[in-house]
Amino acid sequence: xxxxxxxxxxxxxxxxxxxxxxxxxxxxxxxxxxxxxxxxxxxxxxxxxxxxxxxxxxxxxxxxxxxxxxxxxxxxxxxxxxxxxxxxxxxxxxxxxxxxxxxxxxxxxxxxxxxxxxxxxxxxxxxxxxxxxxxxxxxxxxxxxxxxxxxxxxxxxxxxxxxxxxxxxxxxxxxxxxxxxxxxxxxxxxxxxxxxxxxxxxxxxxxxxxxxxxxxxxxxxxxxxxxxxxxxxxxxxxxxxxxxxxxxxxxxxxxxxxxxxxxxxxxxxxxxxxxxxxxxxxxxxxx
Amino acid sequence: xxxxxxxxxxxxxxxxxxxxxxxxxxxxxxxxxxxxxxxxxxxxxxxxxxxxxxxxxxxxxxxxxxxxxxxxxxxxxxxxxxxxxxxxxxxxxxxxxxxxxxxxxxxxxxxxxxxxxxxxxxxxxxxxxxxxxxxxxxxxxxxxxxxxxxxxxxxxxxxxxxxxxxxxxxxxxxxxxxxxxxxxxxxxxxxxxxxxxxxxxxxxxxxxxxxxxxxxxxxxxxxxxxxxxxxxxxxxxxxxxxxxxxxxxxxxxxxxxxxxxxxxxxxxxxxxxxxxxxxxxxxxxxxxxxxxxxxxxxxxxxxxxxxxxxxxxxxxxxxxxxxxxxxxxxxxxxxxxxxxxxxxxxxxxxxxxxxxxxxxxxxxxxxxxxxxxxxxxxxxxxxxxxxxxxxxxxxxxxxxxxxxxxxxxxxxxxxxxxxxxxxxxxxxxxxxxxxxxxxxxxxxxxxxxxxxxxxxxxxxxxxxxxxxxxxxxxxxxxxxxxxxxxxxxxxxxxxxxxxxxxxxxxxxxxxxxxxxxxxxxxxxxxxxxxxxxxxxxxxxxxxxxxxxxxxxxxxxxxxxxxxxxxxxxxxxxxxxxxxxxxxxxxxxxxxxxxxxxxxxxxxxxxxxxxxxxxxxxxxxxxxxxxxxxxxxxxxxxxxxxxxxxxxxxxxxxxxxxxxxxxxxxxxxxxxxxx
Lengths: 287, 674
Hints:
The structure holds 2 protein chains of 2 kinds.
Chain A: H1 3-20, H2 23-43, H3 50-73, H4 78-83, H5 85-90, H6 96-129, H7 146-173, H8 177-204, H9 212-218, H10 220-231, H11 246-285
Chain B: H1 3-34, E1 51-54, H2 60-63, E2 71-76, E3 83-86, H3 88-96, H4 98-104, E4 107-114, E5 120-122, E6 128-130, E7 135-138, E8 143-146, E9 151-152, E10 155-156, E11 159-161, H5 164-174, E12 177-180, H6 181-186, H7 194-219, E13 223-226, H8 234-240, E14 246-249, E15 252-255, E16 258-260, E17 265-274, E18 282-284, E19 290-297, H9 306-310, H10 319-331, E20 336-341, E21 346-349, E22 352-354, E23 358-363, E24 368-371, E25 374-376, E26 388-391, E27 395-398, E28 401-403, E29 407-412, E30 418-420, E31 423-425, E32 429-434, E33 440-442, E34 445-447, E35 452-457, E36 464-466, E37 469-471, E38 475-479, E39 485-487, E40 490-492, E41 496-499, E42 506-508, E43 511-513, E44 517-521, E45 529-531, E46 534-536, E47 540-544, E48 550-551, E49 560-561, E50 575-576, H11 591-595, H12 598-604, E51 618-620, H13 630-638, H14 648-652
Parallel strand pairs in B: 1-3, 13-14, 14-17, 15-17, 16-18, 17-19, 18-20, 19-21, 19-22, 20-23, 21-24, 22-25, 23-26, 24-27, 25-28, 26-29, 27-30, 28-31, 29-32, 30-33, 31-34, 32-35, 33-36, 34-37, 35-38, 36-39, 37-40, 38-41, 39-42, 40-43, 41-44, 42-45, 43-46, 44-47, 46-49, 48-51
Antiparallel strand pairs in B: 2-3, 2-4, 4-7, 5-6, 8-11, 8-12, 9-10, 50-51
């Protein structure tokens, strides 16, 4: 193994180790587990099946998963640069693209674990315990199925991936830790509220309602919500049609993820030339 | 092996394990999207294990085994119990009804009983019958004979067959045509609903008026014998009097027991007939006998035939049927002030009976009209029996007072009975129906019942319980059955106001005030409409037994729940009567503070979207902001003793006013799930 794949693997492994050595992320898992488990316990939906549990979890997931993703991403690409390690890494011939994809892939894996673990635990609990209220009649599960929960979790991870990449991308632009936090907050607020606010605003300024399925698909949260409506909760109903343009929604979630990565590459790529030029200038001056 | 070797091996295995894990995750995720959860078609279950909707399976004809009703069972996408339909017409009707979709989702499997090898036929009465046992067949694979001469007690039916030939053979003999499932679903069946029962309630009241008028006319006969002048005893008088004449019994106390074998009127005035404390005092063995102006005392204290009650008859009946026979034999055979045996047309007016057993026993088709009857039973209900026992006899009870004893009026297989304007005090139950359908229980007053005001047991059809006022009792109204109309009742200071035990029923315009629990959802299957009721000042407005989340609203019309309109409480969402937070609104202002918390709001979202898959509770998506019956609500608070009756006959009669949403702020297209 040599060249780019090797470099990617090295960056990936190094980042995985970094994440694994950050105890705060373990706390994040515990926090999510408490929140998700608490909602299922208090909401009561999980007592009878996965679909009602998803109903109870949907809104919280729209906030919690982006939050976890931003926490994982807001300094992913900044800390190496700030500490100067990035410069060292580059001396081994690691390009910006390789470095960014390596880091993001590792962080994505972390996201899958951080988000997946609590949801899988809660899902497993529901699987084991969910049962009808009374056993005096014949019962069946209807369309309720753990597969629907897997779908839900998949959409949640896709949602998180979009936030992770964008947060990481913006973190590459951040000049200081403080500004990285601020940018992370901006991503969170802008994503969770901004997208839907923009849709609401455009509706009130005359955009026809028929445009909604496409418009909603643009923001990560709208895309996620629509996908969950159509492919998880709505499976139990003979619906009136799709609540979001599913293709666009998936494309948008992937698109935001790629966009975040591109921002990072651009921020770090030209940034390298700037640094090199700065070093040359310094040498010439003899400082 | 040294630890370093182990570590090295583990390091080599790690990537392989990671790849394997990734593969598993990928397969599960891909599978989750490729598999359609709706594709699983469950096999039919034993019909007894389904939750039954449709016509009652306890009609006389069905219980006698004379007729069969083709049945169906449906697995819904979003309802955990298997729903049984007694009759194909109710099944087709349910597919038409948006409400089933909201409550249960869509059907993922439908099985119908097919009668290919079951020797299907039609009785002389035009009822469908089958000697053999039908088989279960997926509905879309079966064919259906429609428009044949075969019917059910509820009307027209389709008869399903698995094979076309069998269906053709049936039509050759009994007419009709063979259609596939999709064509059947397009067909309109006349299915009676609880709304039909509502519309018929005023008619039943008028019919009772007619019965009373007819009874008075029957009783109005020329005088032939006067006791004390022509003969010495009432017994002699009724022996002597020709049919269709009146025996006049002047004021006084007559110590005798009487048997009436001719259609005469016995008219007293402040007349007391004192029995010998053994057996019944007046036994009627002729049709159209009338008794008026009498006081009856000295009734024996045998409340029923104990042997018959305890010993199951040895006629092969099992379970419920045997018990039913027991009750009929036992309950109809005690002592009474007045007994009528297999004789229709009895008229009792202005008669007072003091008894430690029953007041009036009607047996075997002794349809009777009882006007202003008063029965005084013992203080402890265990010491006495029923005010009126109507056993296979249609009773029309108009007015009257029932004080103490077991049940004021006990009607058993007494279809079409009317009990109205009567007062019950301190009885076990006020009115108690068993296997009795199409009855009207209206404008009665019950106080201090030992068990409950009005109770309907077993699964009769089409009862209307309207305008009654029940207070200070363990339960107001508990009616099981199907297609019951329970409206315009006033239920105050009871432990439980009413239960929604009857399926496919309509519960509306009840004023439920100051009870420990206002109403209770008891059926596992949500198939009834609960709307436009007013709940005030109850410890808990509503409770729920086992079963899914029940939606209590009819379209945009919910119920009035005191507290649901609490200030600082968002009006945009529903009222979950069984949630501890919502239930506290009318007693604890701080409940709003927690209700508006992000945590509570998070859980409120989409709550009513899949009620069938959710457990427990009562949810009203459109609670009203003001009572639907403010006059009665005000009357209750002004006069806690009552009674407060509604002008229900005007409101649900021919010129019925449309139901008022009681909430001006609700837009008609509020997108409400009801």
